[in-house]
Design brief:
28% helix, 2 helices, 8-stranded antiparallel β-sheet, 134 residues
Amino acid sequence: IRFIGEDFAPLNPSVCKEYLTSQCSTQIINGEFSMTSYFDMQEDTAIIFASRYVKEKFEEYDEYVQASIEDFLNLHNGLFNVNMSNEQGLELQLDVPNVVTDELVTFEHEAYMLPIVYSFGTIHFIFELIHNEL
C-alpha cells in the first residue's frame, strides 16, 4: 500500500510445487532459517508496477523496469528482515536479487504462492521455505 497503491486484492495462498515464470525477480534470505522469495508478473504489469513504485512513467520493459522491481523486492525483504530482528531477535541476511525469466521453477522445499490482483494485473509472490539444520 505504502509503495504501490491500495487498488489490490490478495487471493488465498496455495502450496506451490512448480511455477512457470514470466518476468521474475528472486532473492534469498539466509540466517536461522532460509527463504527464497520470487516476485513474478507479466511484462505489461511489470511496467505499470515499476512506474508506480518509482513514480516515473515507463513505456516499455527495459533494464530500468527490471532494476525498479529488484529494488522493490530488496526493500520488501529488507523490511521483513528488520521486523524479524525487532520482533523475534533473528538476524537474517539478504543476497543480491536475481532475474529468472520464462523458466519452469521446481521447488525442492515447502513453497507457497500468494497472488495479488491489482487493477493493472496480477503479481505472484512465491516463498520457498528452507529449514536450516542446527
